[in-house]
Amino acid sequence: MTAAAGPGHGFKVLAPWYACERGHFDRFDPAAHAPALQKYASAEFVRALVADPRDSLQFDPEDDVWSFPVPVGLADRGPGRARFATHRLVRTRLRKLYQPSHERFYAVVVELFCDRPGLPRPQSAEGLDVGFVMRRRHVETDAPPKVLRTLSRRLTAELLAEGGRAGPDTGPYLSQAQDVLWADLAHRTAFEETHRELLDQVDLKKETRAWMAGPAGGQWRGLGEPPAPGRPEDREQELPMWRLPARSGDCAHGTPPPERSLWFGVVPTASADHDDQGAPKLDERSVYELRCFVRRTPLPGHEHCPERTSWSKPTEPFRLAPFYDPEGTKNRKISITMPDFRALAARAAAPPGPGGVAITSPPDSQLSFDPGGGTPGGGSVGGTVPRTCTFALEIFMIVAFFLFSMFLPIVVFLFQLWWLLALRFCLPPSLEAAAALKAFFDGTKTLADMGRAETDAFDELLGAKGAGARLRDASGSFAQEDLDDLVDLVTPPATAPVPVPPRPEPPVNDPLCEGG
Fold first, then answer.
1. In a 10 Å sphere around its CB, with 0-12 CB exposed, 13-18 middle and 19+ buried, how is residue 203 labelled?
2. Predicted local distance difference test score (pLDDT) of residue 155
3. Closest to 306 in 3D by CA, of 295, 316, 314
4. Which residues of 362-390 are buried (b: 16+ CB within 10 A; e: fewer)?
5. What is the rounded distance in angstroms from the CA atom of residue 397 to the CA atom of residue 392?
6. Which whole number is the average pLDDT over 214-221?
7. 4: pLDDT confidence band, cut at 50, 70 and 90?
8. In which band, very low, low, confident or very high, does the pLDDT at 6 lie, cut at 50, 70 and 90?
9. In which element (H, E) is residue 415 found?
10. Core-most of 28, 95, 241, 278, by most CB within 10 Å?
11. Are 332 and 101 spatial neighbours (Cβ–Cβ below 8 Å)?
């Protein structure tokens, strides 16, 4: 059923038909009121979206939800590498969106219907302006710290129990208690009923804020709140949506279905904008939502009539992953080949070329010092004229990797961050060194018993000379049962891990093919 987009009605902005089909509800169901968030794993996702909006990726119940770390005591850790993991992640039900640097991209998709009985489809998009806004849910919590800590600990235990794991005796850090409580209460009602006596002691002030942009820049402000005195007028930032082209061939038999009015927009998950106080527009601690709108401009001859805007319900709430989110960075591999010393030595015999990194030091900004065999003994700042030195790019890479390799074991030993060793592996691995260490720690020997062969084996696995001797000197830090786990920690896999591709959404057929 279709209808002309006449001046007498507004629009319903609903989830697209295929989201309804997958959820087993129709466009009249309240579940269809929220626009659909769709996930992709390629920067070319718009091409795939335009080719077939049904083709997107499933949201993973483990990776695509916001999580928070809680400390884990040694007695509660598992064997192997897990013995050195001092924290575990507790997963909430709050959606998490990753950044483009994590190879994840998102679109918001809606389907338009005329706001008339039966929700007919509009025949034309002429005169329609379709877009969306991004809003932030702000909450202020006023409660005794003990109440917040107790509530967040109980919530943590329930979330772990849902995942089939025992809850810890400790909950999140107090600085995260408000975040944990508010993030999951955005979804949960049973928890509120069970712990009403504690929640009654928490004063939650909730507010939805809009990003208001104008000549003075942007700022988050409560809906309907006027700008501060002296600040220029501004308006809520609107992001564009585009209509998906009409499709044919979706039906296996018979004629193509009637044309649908599907629209999409690109969800921003990172921004360089800051407000007038210097705070970033988007951060990893806030909870966001999207609302889509349809604005119809008056037809010719009716210019005196006001614009009419129809709004969708909000999308599901979500948080944004930080840039260094480990569940996001695992999705993208960056390969760098170190400079070949032999090729550079051969190049050194030729005259200097024009390429490289040219660094200019202004007057009174030039550093002069005696390296002193690795420990500078003093220096001065001088220079009367600008001085420019051009270095081959390879020099920076060589020195940077040298410093990284030198300081990694220092950081591990100085701060006892043994789990850092689990975040590196080298191919091909030294299986001989790993086998020799496993044979040495047969249940009777300790780190203090290591000889030259064993310390050299640790040096080879850790990629740092002297690391084995440092481990031997730190033997008091490890219990006997930790030794096999320590060897497992520093032993890399025999082959590079194979990434698990995200699962696509299941295919669905358009119900209009059957005359629906």
1. exposed
2. 72
3. 295
4. eeeebeeeeeeeeeeeeeeeeeeeeeeee
5. 9
6. 93
7. very low
8. very low
9. helix 393-415
10. 241
11. yes
The answer to whether 244 touches 112, Cβ cutoff 8 Å, is no
**Cα–Cα distance for residue pair 234/217, rounded to 1 Å:** 9
Distance of alpha carbon 402 from alpha carbon 410, whole angstroms = 13
- What is the pTM (predicted TM-score) of this model? 0.84
**61's torsion region: left (phi>0), alpha (psi -120 to 50) or beta?**
alpha
Q: What is the pLDDT of residues 154-164, one digit of tens each?
A: 777 777 676 65
The answer to whether 97 and 104 have CB atoms below 8 angstroms apart is yes
- Contact indicator for 406, 399 with CB cutoff of 8 Å: no
Which residue blocks in 163-221 are alpha helix, DSSP H?
A: 174-185, 190-194, 196-199
Q: Strand, helix or coil at 208?
A: strand
User: pLDDT by residue (tens digit) across 83-113?
Assistant: 888 888 888 888 999 999 999 999 999 999 9
Residue 357 has pLDDT above 50, yes or no: yes
Tokens describing residue 277? 């106080």
Q: Tell which phi-psi region holds residue 123, choosing left (phi > 0), alpha (psi between -120 and 50) or beta.
A: alpha
What does the angle CA 10 – CA 11 – CA 12 come to, to the nearest 5 degrees?
140
Coil, helix or strand at residue 50: helix
Buried b (16+ CB within 10 A) or exposed e, 57-89: bebeeebbbbbbebebeeeebeeebbbbbeebb
Residue 65 to residue 328: CA distance in whole angstroms? 12
Give dist(CA 58, CA 453) in Å, integer.
Answer: 50
Share the mean pLDDT of the chain.
83
Closest by Cα among 501, 479, 85, 16 to 263:
16
Per the CB < 8 A criterion, the answer to whether 104 and 442 are in contact is no
**pLDDT, position 191:** 65
With pLDDT > 70 as the criterion, what percentage of the chain qualifies?
A: 85
Check if the beta carbon of residue 434 is closer than 8 Å to that of residue 487.
Answer: yes
Q: Do 254 and 273 meet the contact criterion of CB atoms below 8 Å apart?
A: no
**How many whole angstroms separate alpha carbon 286 and alpha carbon 135?**
10
* Predicted local distance difference test score (pLDDT) of residue 221: 95
How wide is the angle at C-alpha 32 spanned by C-alphas 127 and 19, nearest 5°? 95
Residue in this structure with the two tokens 């480990």, named with its chain if needed: 326
**Residue 59, amino acid:** F
Q: Please compute the mean of the pLDDT values over residues 180-189 and round it to a whole number.
A: 60
- Helix, strand, or coil here: 198? helix
